[in-house]
Amino acid sequence: MHRPSFAVVGCGRVGGALGQLLKERGYPAAAVASRTPASAEKLGRALGCPALPAGEAVRKAGLVFITTPDREIAPVSAALAAQGAFRPGQVVAHTSGAHGADELKGVREAGALAVSIHPLQSFADVEGAKQSLPGSWFALEGDAGAMPLARQVVADLNGHAFTINAADKPLYHAAACIASNYLVSLMHLATGLYGRFGLSRAEAFQALLPLVQGTVNNIARVGPVAALTGPIARGDSSTVAGHLPALERAGAAEAFLYRVLGLYTVKVALEKGGINRRQAEEMEALLGEAPEITKEVKANGE
Question: Tens of pLDDT along 169-178?
Fold first, then answer.
């Protein structure tokens, strides 16, 4: 299949990694543009293409990636449309997980096709993104005419594509945040608690990392329900009761989060079959002895 020339508008982590990977896979780099000239020039050198004003860059390409921060997609695309940068037959994509292709303002009015191509992946830096993007899953949403090229891009990245409705993107993205961003927050919480008895955060991370990796490996092997272990999965309410005073001493937020996550984990333990309904109710009563909001979370989860 023909690989069109491409332009990148927004030369941060995602745009930089995506541009370099597409160039390696035979897509001609037409031009790049960025609010920060230095980042555009750096990516342009890596791709062997010019760094240009955004309107000029877009006019040179058959495939346009707007990889700005989410809040800038609509104003950037609207400004490009006002300049007459889009044209019929062009495919214009953004990589936001939270927004649909409708965020690409003015694209369809110009006769171009709009699509969102979101990689289910986290990017701490360009080099890390280049390593993690290939093989990832991608959520596609937008114009039917853009889907063959969007799927080709994903296939060329050795990725896996699925389509999603625009109305489902907020829930889709929230789930991705839970799986990725909140995992980071949980590790920050856990390593901070280890500091209460003398370990540095770095030492705590090294101590906990094998446990986390083992857990992820178990989830990959048997799925999230079967992989659940620990006192809630066993119905060991005395152990959980021992955790609570220690966490209350550590801080109200820490104890609150433990209770809320524990209430959800009771549901997983029931699904696994590790506890019965009586044990679940006993655990819920123990964990629900908290502020009213925790009880509300419990009620909404049932």
Answer: 999 999 999 9
